[in-house]
Every structure is written in C-alpha cells, then in structure tokens.
Amino acid sequence: MNINRIKDLREDRDLYQKDVAKFLHIKQQQYSEYEIGKRLIPIDYLSRLADYYNVSIDYLLGKTDERKPYPKSKVGS
Q: Is the overall model pTM greater than 0.90, yes or no?
C-alpha cells in the first residue's frame, strides 16, 4: 500500500491525524501507525477513508493514479 497517499490527502485538506482518527472512531496513535506503515489498515477503514476523501480504494492502495472513485452500483436494478 502507498502509505504516503493517506498522509498526503490528509495534509492537502489541512487536517490533523486526530481529525481523521476521530472520523474513524479510533485513537490518534492507531491512525499514526497506519500512516507510517506500522499497522495495516483494515478494509472497512480503507473504504471509509476512500469515501471521506472522495477517491477510490485502488488510489489509496497505489494501484492507480486516478483519484476519481468508481460509480456506485445500483443493487436490484
């Protein structure tokens, strides 16, 4: 995973680690460990961060440089 992406996105929005940690309902120390690569980010947090920053999970993971999230699927259509 490209751990710099979550830090860059946070800093681009002038947010502190504690701000994002609060959004995720975790402690700032835990979030800090995600940013430095000490801990792996659970998929549900990745999904929430992708929605928060309006980017795709693939972008957060470094699989693409395209920030735009994928269109939401319509279940039952």
A: no
